[in-house]
Amino acid sequence: MATPQTDAAPNPGLIIDTLLYFQRSAALRAAIELDLFRAVGEGPGDVASLARQCSASERGIRILCDFLTIHGFLTKSDGRYQHTPTSAAFLDPRSPSCLASIARFLGNEAMMEPCRHLAEIVRSGRTSLPGQGSVEPDHPVWVDFAHSMAPMMAPIAAPLGQIVLHGFTGPVRVLDIAAGHGLFGIEIAKQDPQAEIVALDWAAVLEVAKANAQKAGVADRYHTLPGSAFDVDYGGPYDIILLTNFLHHFDIPTCVGLLKKVRAALKPGGRCATLEFVPNEDRVTPPMAASFAMVMLTTTASGDAYTLKDLESMYQQASYGRVTGEPIPHSPHTVVTGFTT
Amino acid sequence: MATPQTDAAPNPGLIIDTLLYFQRSAALRAAIELDLFRAVGEGPGDVASLARQCSASERGIRILCDFLTIHGFLTKSDGRYQHTPTSAAFLDPRSPSCLASIARFLGNEAMMEPCRHLAEIVRSGRTSLPGQGSVEPDHPVWVDFAHSMAPMMAPIAAPLGQIVLHGFTGPVRVLDIAAGHGLFGIEIAKQDPQAEIVALDWAAVLEVAKANAQKAGVADRYHTLPGSAFDVDYGGPYDIILLTNFLHHFDIPTCVGLLKKVRAALKPGGRCATLEFVPNEDRVTPPMAASFAMVMLTTTASGDAYTLKDLESMYQQASYGRVTGEPIPHSPHTVVTGFTT
Question: Are the beta carbons of A270 and A238 closer than 8 angstroms?
Answer without folding.
Answer: yes
